[in-house]
C-alpha cells in the first residue's frame, strides 16, 4: 500500500535522525570517506570527501608529517591527487567513458571531521541509461580498512552504499529505465524513498554537515 503524503513526512521525521546518527558515528574514523553522487541526464557530479589524515599520509601530501594539511600543501599536490583519483575512480555509462573534470580540491569540515573535498564532473556524449562506479582509492594495498559511504541521487531515488575492499563496485540504472530490473549489489542499502520531496530532504540533510 502506498504511503500517503502525511505518512511519508512522518517516516522522514523518524528516519532522518537515525540516518544522521549512523553517518555521524562513522564519520570520525580516519579511514572513512564519503561520496555524494548525483546522476543527471548525460552527466554526473561526484563530491568525494577523503579524510585529511589519510590524504596526507597515504598520498604524501603532508610534507612536514605533522598530521595536518595546509592549503599550500594541498595546492602543491593537486596534480598528483587528481591523477590518483582519475586512475582509481572509474565511471562508465555502459561501455562508454566520460569526459572527466576536477572542478575543485579544498580542505573542508564534513560531519565534524577534517576532510579533503574533491569535486568531480563526468560528462557523456549520450544520455545515461546504465552506469557503473569502480572505487579503488586507498584500497589497493594502501589502506585495507578504508571505507567510503556513498549516497547516490538518481532522479527521485536516493540510495546509500558502503564501499569496502570486498565491495568496491556499484552498478545502477538511470531513472529513464526500469529500475526494478536492476539487481541490488551486496553493498547497496536502498532507503526505498518513493517521494521526490523525501529524497531532496535526505540529500540536503547529508550536505548540512559539510
UniProtKB/TrEMBL annotation:
<dbReference type="InterPro" id="IPR018247">
    <property type="entry name" value="EF_Hand_1_Ca_BS"/>
</dbReference>
<feature type="compositionally biased region" description="Acidic residues">
    <location>
        <begin position="178"/>
        <end position="189"/>
    </location>
</feature>
<feature type="region of interest" description="Disordered">
    <location>
        <begin position="169"/>
        <end position="191"/>
    </location>
</feature>
<protein>
    <recommendedName>
        <fullName>EF-hand domain-containing protein</fullName>
    </recommendedName>
</protein>
